[in-house]
Amino acid sequence: MDEATLAELRAIGASTADAPGVAERDTVAARLAVFLEDPTDPDRRETLLRWAERTARRGPTAETRSAARLVLALLRDGTPPAALRAVDPPLGLAVDPRRAAVAAAAVALAAGGAVLAARALSAPAVALTGPPGGTTVGPALDGRLVFTARGSPSLLRRERWRLDGRDVTRLVRIRGRAATFRPGRLEEGAHAVEVTAGGGLLGASGQAQRSFVVDLTPPSLDVPGPPRVAAWHPLRVVGRTDPDATVTVAGRRARVVDGRFSVALPAPQPRTITVVATDSAGNSTVEEQPLAVVPRRPPAPIRGVHVSADAWRDPALRRGILALIAAHRVNAVELDLKDESGIVGWNPDVPLARRIGAARPIYDLPAAVRRLHRLGVWVIGRLVCFRDPILAAAAWHAGRRGEVVQTPSGHAYAGYGGFTNLASPAVRAYNVAIAVAAAHAGVDDILYDYVRRPDGPIASMRFPGLRGSPAAAVVAFLRESRLALRPYGTFLGASVFGIAATRPGEVAQDVPAMARQLDYVAPLLYPSHWAPGEYLVDDPNAHPYEIVERALIGFERAVAGTPARVVPWLQDFSLGIRYGPARVRAQIAAARRDGIGEFLLWSPRATYTAAALDPDAPRQPRRR
Questions:
Q1: Which of 128, 187, 502, 536 has its CB surrounded by the most CB atoms within 10 Å?
Q2: Positions in the chain short of pLDDT 70
């Protein structure tokens, strides 16, 4: 054995650190020392080779395993020391000592560089995946982070994992060629996951790291409020947040500049304005504020009476209405535009109404409007919508059966003499056309009636073409009407069942949703129409004050935060019990008790109890 190989073995023994827990006789240095005592002894050589083969596979440290592999390369494989680039051959004695020292230093430097290079080339490759370095982790990811290292099973078993410098290897799960670490929920601040693996030449090791920051602090949010807006006007919402946050207001993206934001919401706005500020980490701050909407109102509170087309044409009945106006007991007159029979009693220029015989010249609407306006009276046009026997019969006989409410078997629904389909675009367009014609004639207000489905079990009726619920179709129709009337500035109201505030499914009247499209809701609160026990009133017809006062509370709640106000229909007729001045006045007083100073009186004969009405109804100034 040449001297260069012996010198290399001595160097390996001297440079390999003792592994912890290894008996002194089994250290690399001890094993090599025994062999070097007599390198020519074949038994010692064989013993060293068996030890080296065993240690190269199962050595306690990467450094001892690397040393054993070098011993095998030199003794078993016959690799020259020069090929390992560890040290140069020994220098002869004839060499100048000074030059030898310089050469030895150069050799040492070269050998050191070679070892470093060899270690670098043999370092295990650690492939770690997870959030990219520098990632900010917010609440959505905190607790769900996953880090994965991939490689051979033997490499994965040698890996050591650390979280923020703390060994977490015991928490890593190895399956096949993947090792997975889930750190769970972490506190705010900077964190790092590091993976190292040994086993390279002369103890070389590989390393990978992912650094990230956990941010769980939501952004600041300041929204002055509560917001307030006039009905049918846009609402501007302003506020402040962190400069890097994004903001939505009622689902609309707001522009943020230096932390200030502003957005305009078109009418009708939601009843509650929700503002959400979200930072880059996904933290959110939510603020909800109820919207106060100031409804549109006539110049003076409505004190009105119902007048049918025939009643206005009748001189005696008309004189009675004009006498109430002259005595300042009423300041609004509700004239029928289309009544329960489907008759359009003022012969408007609506082609379909004339074609089916619904338009009849019972009274002159433009002339009536001009006369009432001169008297300082607000003119309301009542339009019965979907209860329409004339249109239903005409459409059915013409084969347009989709315009008619039907039974499940496909026959025309017979209730009310004919009920048109609230889902039919043609039916809706017909009613809107009459409303627009009345607005053009100068009426101040359109009040829809029978804007609902027929009462009774919904399973007994079918609405061809209906998508969604009947209640949603009613709301869509009101929106179409509102948009059509907007150029005229005409007010829009809807009469609703008295039970609609608590039982919206009864006739498809969702009062809060309807109110978002209206200027007012007119509940039918006639005491004679309530069942005993409603609102804990044993006999509503005999206790008009109690039933009206209690029912109106529910309607006031239903329209809160919408553009609509409440204008109740009250009873001025006798049904079961005689209604004189006291009972009519009691209903008006109940409405005032609830803060409602407006009302509409119903009498099918258009004769009203003057003694029940105070003579102080203010005149209505003309609208521009």
A1: 128
A2: 62, 82-124, 199-204, 623-624
Alpha-carbon torsion, ordered 133, 134, 135, 136, to 10 deg: 160
289-306 CB burial, b ≥16 within 10 A, e <16:
eebebebbebebbbbbbb
Residue type, 5: T
Looking at residue 62, its pLDDT comes to 67
Spatial distance between the Cα atoms of 428 and 478, rounded to a whole number of angstroms:
9
Alpha-carbon span 568 to 585, nearest angstrom: 14
Mark whether 232 and 344 lie in a shared domain.
Answer: no
Q: Could you check whether the bond before residue 268 is cis, i.e. omega within 30 degrees of 0?
A: yes
Are 271 and 187 part of one and the same domain? no
Do 334 and 283 reside in the same domain of the chain? no
482 and 400 in a common domain: yes
Write out the H or E segment, with its range, that includes residue 36.
Answer: helix 28-37
In a domain, 594, yes or no: yes
Domain co-membership, 227 together with 251:
yes
Helix H segments across 464-536?
A: 470-485, 511-515
- Decide which of 252, 273, 294 is a domain's last residue: 294
Residue with tokens 């009920």: 419
Same domain assignment for residues 318 and 345:
yes
State residue 543's pLDDT score: 96
The tens digit of pLDDT for each residue in 220-231 reads 999 998 899 999
What is the Cα Rg of the chain in Å? Answer: 46
Residue 249 pairs with which residues in a beta bridge? 252, 275
* pLDDT (tens digit per residue) in 411-466: 999 888 899 999 999 999 999 999 999 999 999 999 999 999 999 999 999 999 99
What does pTM read for this prediction? 0.69
Residue 113 confidence (pLDDT)? 47
